[in-house]
Specification:
By secondary structure, the protein is α+β, with helices and mostly antiparallel strands. The protein is built from 18 helices and 22 strands. Helix content is about 45%, strand content about 20%. Strands 2-1-5-4-3 form a five-stranded antiparallel beta sheet, sandwiched between helices. Strands 7-6-10-9-8 form a five-stranded antiparallel beta sheet, sandwiched between helices.
């Protein structure tokens, strides 16, 4: 075998520092990059949210104007000659903010009756065929932008006019494009973000920056190509008209066919990554430098005492008086003390063997027992007189005899055998043992027998098997809990629109789950009293339980799995009641009850939740969030039961029935 290369203490300490610091730097880098990625994702989500909010704001303005025009159109009576009072109605509507003029047009798009604002000298816009066709098909329509600037850019909104349920003409209103500029205030954008609304041709209807010079003019080719493509939403990169690289999110409206765009500077998206890299490099180099400096100092403090200890050992080997001064390093001082005691300890080895709690047995080359200490007598039950001279095989079960003989040959060839096995006591009872067999040689190196040290590990083996069982059970429960938490996180994410909302909702659900686990821990994950489960869940969020909540039902217990599922449902019910239901009112009340019901099959538990004294429920909510899914599907599936939710006018009623399984 080749000798291991000798290394100095300083080298070893430096290597240890690098081995410890390097993974920490990598971990720090991964954490920093993860945070940077999370920050970028947050910005991306906010950009997409702002795009949707901007598009919704523009749609609301369009719907409001379309509703005004539709109301006016419904009040008109169309004949060969326009009614005299139409001009007066038209004039009143023209006073609305942003409306330049209104007129009635025919199927060919020609004006029939018109009203021109006193402040406008431009002629009435010619309506294109697509807009006219859409109106005469019974749908409102919005035109592309015409003109330029805040004062000159306009769009046309048109609605159908009916007679005897047939479209006979259209009502059009020319509106200043500046009317839509306030939509940017509802988009919740950062000050350095850029937003715009483009018409069907890719021209600016509204722009958050430099609107006076951009309205009515075409956007960048990249923007026009994106909005005129087959998809109604997506992202693209380009350089803004101000020369800044940006990443854009766009969304095309089904109402107006206009596209809302929100652009975020790429520098803002890349900033978290660059900060993370800078922190990683600076932090890593600083930590490594300080650690190496400390390692240099410590190595110097260790190497000196080690050299002195070497001289002390040499003196003892030569029979001289060694150094009596104590060392400051505990381990080195311990070695020095051990060297001083080496001769005294060798004299006591025989006494230690005799007093050892382990069985220490001497065996000759024929396999016969020659030495038998007190520990062997206590472990195996034989006295020395009963076993001296007998083969050691009397301690070995028949099924292990072949293995025993093979090991004896290996020992007599000079090997040391360590392991665990089974041996026999005098009463024929089998015990688990840990053994070490080592050859014994005379002064000439000839093997004259071997020694066996045996320790009874029956209890340790039983404990180890029990521990493995517990670990498997823990792993199983941990996987189940992680799956539940992952499901809660995913469903909460789908039903919350903001990070703060996600954190608040997610924390609440985890608290509810934790409350169930507190009870499960007290009961050692066995049967859980129903009353204790309900009280614990209610107490998480309700302060005055006796005043606002009534709990009733027989003393029954449910399984740990069922307790987790029911606890999750209770948390959702309590949270919903505090926010919107009975517990949101001073006189509100919740009745929680359960009972056993007889069925042809095994008896079932009927659990009920009834609210009263809270806000009146006018109608069944249309939106179904994660809480509704928990109450109607998830809990029922977990309990293998049936759930029902009723939105009564007096308050929410929820019930679930399932067969208990303890």
């Amino acid at each position: 075998m080749s000798a291991t290369k000798s290394r100095s203490i300083q080298y070893r300490i430096f290597a240890l520092v690098i081995i410890i610091i390097a993974p920490l730097i990598v971990l720090f880098a991964l954490v920093a990059l993860g945070l940077a990625s999370a920050n970028r994702d947050t910005i991306e989500l906010r950009r997409q949210s702002s795009t949707k909010e901007l598009s919704s704001a523009v749609d609301r303005d369009f719907v409001e104007l379309e509703g005004t025009l539709s109301g006016l159109a419904a009040s008109l009576e169309i004949s060969d000659a326009a009614p005299r009072d139409f001009t007066q109605k038209l004039a009143e509507k023209a006073k609305l903010s942003g409306i330049v003029r209104m007129w009635i047009f025919s199927k060919s798009g020609e004006p029939m009756v018109q009203f021109v604002d006193a402040g406008s000298a431009n002629p009435i816009r010619q309506l294109d065929d697509k807009l006219t066709a859409r109106v005469f098909s019974g749908q409102p329509a919005a035109s592309s932008v015409a003109g330029e600037g805040m004062d000159g850019a306009t769009i046309v909104i048109a609605v159908p006019i009916y007679s005897d349920k047939a479209v006979v003409s259209g009502l059009a209103a020319e509106i200043s494009a500046a009317h839509f500029s306030h939509a940017f205030d509802e988009a919740a954008m950062k000050p350095n973000w850029l937003a715009a609304v483009l018409d069907q041709n890719g021209n600016f209807v509204a722009r958050s920056l430099d609107a006076d010079n951009r309205l009515g003019r075409p956007a960048r080719p990249e923007a026009r190509a994106a909005i005129m493509g087959p998809v109604i939403s997506g992202t693209f990169e380009n350089v803004s008209l101000e020369g800044a690289p940006v990443l854009n999110a766009f969304l095309r409206s089904n109402l107006t066919q206009w596209t809302s765009i929100v652009a975020v500077p790429k520098s803002e998206l890349d900033a978290p990554l660059w900060r993370a890299l800078a922190y990683t490099i600076l932090g890593g180099l600083s930590a490594l430098g300080l650690s190496l400096l400390a390692a240099t100092i410590m190595a110097a403090r260790i190497s000196g005492p080690v050299a002195n200890l070497s001289r002390h050992a040499t003196a003892l080997a030569e029979g001289q008086v060694g150094q009596t001064e104590k060392y400051r390093i505990t381990e080195i001082e311990s070695v020095r003390a051990s060297l001083d005691k080496a001769m005294a300890q060798s004299a006591r080895l025989a006494a230690l063997v005799a007093a050892s709690g382990d069985a220490i047995i001497g065996v000759d080359t024929d396999g016969r027992i020659q030495a038998w200490n007190k520990g062997a007598e206590e472990i195996f039950g034989y006295s020395p007189e009963e076993v001296i001279g007998k083969p050691k095989s009397i301690l070995v079960p028949d099924e292990l005899m072949a293995e025993f003989d093979a090991q004896r040959i290996q020992i007599l060839e000079g090997e040391i055998i360590r392991g665990e096995s089974v041996r026999l006591r005098k009463n024929a009872r089998k015990i688990d043992v840990e053994f070490v067999d080592a050859p014994i040689s005379d002064s000439f190196g000839n093997i004259t027998g071997y020694s066996t040290t045996i320790r009874d590990i029956t209890e340790r083996t039983a404990y180890r098997e029990h521990r493995q069982l517990l670990l498997r059970e823990l792993a199983h429960r941990t996987k189940n809990q992680l799956a539940v938490i992952q499901s809660i996180a995913q469903q909460t994410k789908r039903n919350t629109s903001s990070l703060d909302g996600f954190i608040e909702t997610f924390n609440g659900r985890i608290q509810g789950l934790a409350a169930s686990h507190d009870i499960l821990s007290k009961q050692q994950w066995h049967a859980i009293p129903m009353r204790e489960l309900v009280k614990t869940q209610v107490a998480v969020l309700v302060v005055e339980i006796d005043k606002s909540v009534t709990i009733s039902g027989p003393d029954i217990a449910i399984s740990a799995v069922h307790a987790e599922a029911l606890g999750l449902a209770l948390h959702e019910l309590i949270t919903n009641s505090i926010k919107y239901g009975a517990l949101s009112e001073q006189n509100g009340h919740v009745a929680i009850s359960w009972k056993l019901i007889a069925t042809p099959e095994p008896a079932k538990i009927l659990f009920e939740w009834l609210e009263s004294g809270g806000p009146k429920i006018r109608r069944t909510p249309l939106r179904r969030g994660f809480g509704s899914k928990v109450l109607s599907e998830i809990v029922a599936l977990s309990l293998n039961g049936t759930a029902r939710t009723e939105f009564r006018s007096s308050g929410l009623y929820w019930q679930i029935a399932w067969a208990p399984k303890i």
